[in-house]
């Protein structure tokens, strides 16, 4: 069974940093692209970033480039998101999700999410 | 960026009814359109991929159609457990974008 488990969220002051992790199990992690999607309280879904199966191709939402960094460790079946220079508007639940890449870029499995709260 | 406009933003229907949710892209996205269901406090769940393909395990009362810029999600024979927010999602190009969501309430 596919499992994605996020961790690393918490309360952080504006300007602070966090590192989110997503532990994957139950599937061949190194053959899937991975994504981060976030959801502000009471709001819709916002795609944050994607990383290819090998880690060679990385994409970010335009508004986040430079502050967030996605990475992965295929040997440890893990996905990461480094969040720097956090702002109030970065508050929300952060989900990791997988996709098969190429023409199959739908998110067929999601984690339960980890809550990031940016507040002074 | 490709903008996804979903409507209606909210709808109410009774058990056994049929409802349709529409998603419109700001440019042609071929069939790179997917639908998710999200219940309170839970992660989104994939229902339909590539416009009309039913994800494994999803009841057949859910169906999708469309291509290019206009897409629909139809739910037939509504059940109480279908109460949720539904989102469309385009993966034609980055940044991937979602519709703003359609909240379905079962009366």
List the helices and strands and how they pair.
The complex is a heterodimer of chains A (120) and B (107).
Chain A: E1 3-7, E2 10-12, E3 18-25, E4 33-39, E5 45-51, E6 58-60, E7 68-73, E8 78-83, E9 92-99, E10 109-110, E11 114-118
Parallel strand pairs in A: 2-11
Antiparallel strand pairs in A: 1-3, 3-8, 4-5, 4-9, 5-6, 7-8, 9-10, 9-11
Chain B: E1 4-7, E2 10-13, E3 19-25, E4 33-38, E5 45-49, E6 53-54, E7 62-67, E8 70-75, E9 84-90, E10 97-98, E11 102-106
Parallel strand pairs in B: 2-11
Antiparallel strand pairs in B: 1-3, 3-8, 4-5, 4-9, 5-6, 7-8, 9-10, 9-11
Report what the structure shows.
- The complex is a heterodimer of chains A (120) and B (107).
- Chain A contains no helices and eleven strands.
- Chain A is mainly β and 120 residues long.
- In chain A, the strands form two sheets. In chain A, strands 2, 4, 5, 6, 9, 10 and 11 form a seven-stranded mixed β-sheet that branches. A four-stranded antiparallel β-sheet of chain A has the order 1-3-8-7, with no helix packed on it.
- In chain A, a hairpin with a 6-residue loop joins strand 5 (45-51) and strand 6 (58-60).
- The relative contact order of chain A is 0.32.
- The mean pLDDT of chain A is 96.
- Chain B has 107 residues and is mainly beta.
- Helix content of chain B is 0%, strand content 50%.
- Chain B has strands at 4-7, 10-13, 19-25, 33-38, 45-49, 53-54, 62-67, 70-75, 84-90, 97-98, 102-106.
- In chain B, strands 2, 4, 5, 6, 9, 10 and 11 form a seven-stranded mixed β-sheet that branches.
- In chain B, strand 5 and strand 6 (53-54) form a beta hairpin.
- Chain B is globular, with a radius of gyration of 13 Å.
- In chain B, 36% of the residues are buried.
- Chain A binds chain B through residues 35, 37, 44-47, 50, 59-62, 95, 99, 103-113, and chain B through 1, 32, 34, 36, 38, 42-46, 49-50, 55, 87, 89, 91, 94-101.
């Amino acid at each position: 069974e596919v499992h994605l488990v996020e961790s690393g969220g918490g309360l952080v002051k504006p300007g602070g940093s966090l590192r989110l992790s997503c532990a994957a199990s139950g599937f061949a992690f190194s053959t899937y692209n991975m994504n981060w999607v976030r959801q502000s309280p009471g709001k819709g879904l916002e795609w944050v970033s994607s990383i290819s199966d090998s880690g060679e191709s990385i994409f970010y939402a335009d508004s986040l480039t430079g502050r967030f960094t996605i990475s992965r460790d295929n040997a440890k079946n893990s996905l990461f998101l480094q969040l720097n220079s956090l702002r109030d508007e970065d508050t929300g639940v952060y989900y990791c999700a997988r996709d098969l890449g190429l023409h199959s870029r739908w998110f067929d499995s999601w984690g339960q999410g980890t809550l990031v709260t940016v507040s002074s | 960026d490709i903008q996804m406009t979903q409507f209606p933003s909210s709808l109410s229907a009774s058990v056994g009814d049929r409802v349709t949710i529409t998603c419109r892209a700001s440019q042609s996205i071929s069939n790179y359109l997917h639908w998710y269901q999200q219940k309170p406090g839970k992660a989104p769940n994939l229902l339909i991929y590539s416009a009309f393909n039913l994800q494994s395990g999803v009841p057949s009362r859910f169906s999708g159609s469309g291509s290019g810029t206009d897409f629909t999600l139809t739910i037939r024979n509504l059940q109480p457990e279908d109460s949720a927010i539904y989102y469309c999602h385009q993966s034609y190009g980055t940044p991937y974008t979602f519709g703003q969501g359609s909240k379905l309430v079962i009366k």
